[in-house]
Here is the input.
Amino acid sequence: MGWFKKKSTNSHNDIEREVPSMHIIPLNPHTKLPVVFEGESERILAAVTTDGRISFFPAESVLESKILDRIGERYPEERYSEVHTYVCVGVMLKSMKEERASFIFEVWGFWEPMQELEHLYYTLNSLGGRTVGDEYWIGVEKYLADEPVRTWINSLIEFLQQELNWKDYVDRVLHELG
Here is the structure.
């Protein structure tokens, strides 16, 4: 897991492009919103990637509404009222024509409550107001990187990559971005 390579034919020669692994963005079980911290100059979205590494992305002001809209598109209430748990997955990538990277994401719903995702949400949320590298932060990093949490995170990433056909999805979105 981690990085996967994809052939791109944006020029006369095929080039190998590395695409970062999927990041798990757990959503609040009640509001379906991600953990977003308000920084001095920007909003920060909290996520976890392979082996329990904590990661952050810039969070545009409309991110939450985009996630809720996508949940509504994929899981209309009239058909999927029994979906209990949602997760968002994403990656920051830059297309050849874009000046800055875009947050490419998708959502997935689980029919059964998933306590591990709920716990992951609250664990990431607990980092609010903390300093990277302080004792608490190091403890959270260690917890996420230790077994069995690390294996669960890696298994979830692998499952979602397969179910969402992630490589093709990312390529299609990049193509649409130009």
